[in-house]
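Q: I have 260 residues here and want to know how they pack in 3D. Can you give me a structure?
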Amino acid sequence: MRRGVRAPCRAFSVMDELVQAFSLVLTPGSELSQIVLLTLQMSVFSTVISTAIGVPLGVCVGLYRFRGKRLVMRILNTLMGLPPVLAGLIVFFILSRSGPLGSLRLLYTLPAMVIAQVVLITPIVCGLSATAISGVAPLVHETAHGMGLTRRRELLCLLYECRSQLLSIMFVAFGRSIGEVGAVMLVGGNVQYKTRVMTTAIMLETNMGHFEYAVALGIVLLVVSFIVNSVALTLQERTAAPEAQGAWSSSRGGKLGGGK
């Protein structure tokens, strides 16, 4: 009987905490709104930097043939599963006072968390980009060679053909970044009003025994991630819509012409 009473009470408690959390997110200047803003800053910066580094490297690995390519792909596949705690520990030692970059005093700051995220995400972006490019490169090369295109235009055509895959890889990188906790906790320290993000706030509330509020924060994190990804996908669909419509019209016109 007690279990039957506790479950509805706990459910109502979670709903109350969820309503309170969303109201705090929408309140300017509140701690939770600042946490959400810092989470988005960290995720966007780390995603952009990782994409800027990983995509060109992935294109080079996937497009060109060179000695040791298999070894490079194996290393990338290994680094794609790099434990977040290990990545955070490496960045922590580099940025600590006794480390090579200790004089910059970046430890327990937003740039330190972004650096840790870049170390984690760049191999993922690079490996997935190399796989996507290597699957399309032979067909694009054959078509470009038949049309007499230069190497530069062939590369541009290759990137254009892989744009959907590359955008999907960027979404994967953003999702990996916004849900990270281990490396961020090590190099950020979960300092209030400075380096506390959504995942570290959830961990803090869980350790304090505030399970309902932690669940509410998790739902808020999912909603924020859903909104960001929905906006990005909408922009992607609007960009691809004219091209798809033109291709459909041309194919339909060809069929009608053939029927005549």
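Q: Anything worth noting?
A: The domain at 24-197 is CATH 1.10.3720.10 (MetI-like fold). The radius of gyration is 23 Å.
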